Amino acid sequence: MNRLRVLLSAGIVLVAVVALYLVLHGDSKTDLSQSETVSDTVRVPLESAPEGLASVSLQTDRSAPVELAEADEALVARFDQLCESSLANFQDYIDEPYDTEQAIAEGQEHRTAIKNRLAQSDVAEHLHVAALYSDDSAERLELISKAIELDPTDAHLMWTATGLCINAKGAADCPLDDWMKSLAKLDGQNTQTWMLVSTQRYKAGDSEGALDALQVAGSVQETSLFWTETITTVERGLASASDMSFPYRAVEAIGVAAAIAIPSFSTLSEMCRTESTPNSDWASACTAYMSRAASQAETEISALVAMGLHKQMLEDLGDHEAAATLERQMQARRRRYQVDGTGIQRIADALIIANPTTFYEYLTDLKSDGEIAARGRMIDIARQRLEAEPDQVCAELQIE
Predict the structure, then answer these.
(1) DSSP H or E run through 284
(2) What is the pTM of this model?
(3) In angstroms, rounded to a whole number, what is the distance separating the alpha carbons of residues 354 and 357?
């Protein structure tokens, strides 16, 4: 498969992830399935990443629309004509049938190989990735425990460990209470950390403690689901454990993060729907958390999930006018996102993963300003480069 196909497929991968999630969970009453871990801004410095991907705080509503110039169509046509020889068979590749069972088997073999190589490391980050690549709960927890022994102060690692422990559902032993306390200490200004504490207390029958934690969640200043950290951690792990080229590593890292970055909100949904109707303190706490989680979300998926939960709670409270207003806001965000696998967006997505510099600059923008703004900047970069150096864009994407 030539590199162009991988690069241009990246946009399709991103679109597919978004579309699949919204199709599965578009109904706000859908019970969100348990995921493996959680995360969203990040204060943990990413020392190993290229310079510029430093810790930042999310502060503003990041839903500004991306406006595309009318000249984009001409720019893309020029690009397609210039690179016609390599683009001619792209759609044929996308449509080409493949053996699903064989693909699954090869994927499993690949995951096992990556896990086995990284599991031999004495580097905490490598063991972290090995745990994410394991399909066995006991092995996951053993690997993540070893990682914590090596680096007990990594909030991202502790977040993953807590999520894996919760998801094990008793199938393997893990010190959940200790890990939760460590997470709250390491990541005490994170809305999502306190949401997790709240839901775990509620499941244990401690309604008062759950309310206290949720009130903290709605008052702290940052929101993090460790989306960008997971991507960078996995990409670096793949660089150490494989000979995959950067674009392949980037696409796979995005896929792993997409699979684990949205936590289960089923307990939160049940908690807020059950407790908010008879208790205004609960209603206020749930509203404050959901509003903050939506306004400070890195990705549009996490923002829409938080808004969907809020809409659901408003409907249960009988505030149909407010629920309808929120639904209109959700529809507006979906329209602004408008990701498709064609046109200039296709080229922008290819440039995102073409090289480490552009990729990590994009992640920095995503973490500091949100997905809409980050993608908008990449579209601007693609537009400028197509105007000034379309031949260089083709060369950078290694189009034959």
Answers:
(1) helix 280-295
(2) 0.79
(3) 9
Residues 381, 351: Cα–Cα separation, whole Å: 9
Q: Which tokens belong to 128?
A: 């972290």
The DSSP secondary structure of 102-143, one letter per residue, reads: HHHHHHHHHHHHHHHHHHT---HHHHHHHHHH---HHHHHHH
Specify whether the backbone of 65 is left (phi greater than 0), alpha (psi in -120 to 50) or beta.
beta
The tens-digit pLDDT sequence of the chain (400 residues) is 444 445 445 444 444 444 333 323 333 333 333 333 323 322 222 333 333 333 222 233 444 444 445 667 777 777 777 776 555 444 455 456 666 777 778 888 999 999 999 999 999 999 999 999 999 999 999 999 999 999 999 999 999 999 999 988 877 789 999 999 999 999 999 999 999 999 999 999 999 999 999 999 999 989 989 999 999 999 999 999 999 989 889 989 998 998 887 777 889 999 998 999 889 999 999 999 999 999 888 888 889 999 999 999 999 889 999 999 999 999 988 887 765 545 788 788 888 988 899 999 999 999 988 888 898 899 889 888 888 888 888 877 764 4
